[in-house]
Amino acid sequence: MSLAALTGAVAATPARAGTPLSIVVSGNHFVNGAGATIRLLGVDVPSTEYACDQGWGYSSQPLTVTAADAIASWHADAARVPLNEDCWLGLNGQPSYGTASGYQQAIETWVSDLNTAGLYAIIDLHWTAPGTGDADGQRPMPDAHSLAFWSSVANEFKGDAAVVFDAFNEPYSPAANGDSSLAVSWSCWLDGGCPVPVANQDGPIDDNDTYTAVGMQAVVDAIRGTGATQPIMLGGLSYANDLSGWLAHEPVDPAHQLVASFHGYYGEACDTAPCWDTTVATVAAHVPVVTGEFDQGYDCVDPPTTPSSLTTFDTAFMDWADAAGVSYLAWGWWVLGTTSTRCSALGDPGDNYALISGYSGTPVSPDGSTLRSHLAALDAPGTVQVTTGSLAAGAVKAKYSAALSASGGNPPYRWSVSAGRLPPGLHLHSTGVITGKPTVKGFFAFTVRVVDRKTRTKPHTQNTGARSLSITVG
What we know:
8-stranded parallel barrel, 2 domains, alpha/beta, single chain
């Protein structure tokens, strides 16, 4: 739910309407149908994972074109759709409301509406249960039903180029919940086979009530077995907050379209820039990273002022991710009844993780208003555009030279590095040329800023542009 960038250039803004609405992995970033580098920036839309199980409906909020347009009005380009495997498959007496075919049709229509609004849809397997149990919450790992679920879902959506599959919401090890005998290792994350408890994450752990975990490789194979080629997100361990073993255990994907999913909430183990630098950035150097969920964890009329790391978490993470080229979606686009309550810190009853107070898109402060204003700023039109798409890799002690380019505004341009750093030994000249000899191996992320010439007439104005780039030195 500190700087690293994708090896390919990452656009600072979301994809906008007018570009072909399709998405594929290219190296370690996404590109759309026009070949432009994009990120997935938006919101999670909860309730399609639980309303059907609890008998409220296929969703507890409107799933309409108008609702999709409200999300898009925040300058978002993506929405995440959490699903329930029993409701989709019609297993174990689910859905409690309606029928499996009705649930499927509701989801298919919602995805189509999101696409119509210019939004990529991330289809997420959120609530599961093995055997004859009810999919009434989050389990540690996929089960056998999950393979049937993905075979069906992928077959249904394989023709939609604007869809991304999120294989399993938040894998976790029950050992973290106090049962060391039911640990999910990274090897089990990949290949399955380890026992995990049937009880959902909020229930008691019962060593005698377990099922055999299904690994991520099997899920990838189930999706690819349908002929679907869309990107597949794979969440790390510790509720997707731990990506430390992701690269070493990356499944084999014949389509080469795998994506790491990271969840970042305030109060989790990896909730600071140093951790993002050492884990998330390392993975982002090789594959795209999508933060499927993030939030600082309170929404109140009278929000807390301390600790400062809580009150600044959303902005700190988005700023880091922007410079890093990491995608992110905030939890959650829903209206809850406690948005007017007072709270003082994470864990208070007022901490409802709501972004809005109405489905027309009225933001709740601070999380909703912060996200909306942040995305609007990223998407603000500029008259100077950095047109450099990527930078070549370098080698230690070898001469390096690359020229940055821009368009619009009033040339000539002046260039600088506004965040991050170039590889030691390299220098960005004000003319936009990077030269030198790298002295250290590694992955170096930075943001370049370009400024055009002041206008001759008063009032004198200047235009600026910026872009996140990176250079890998081998």
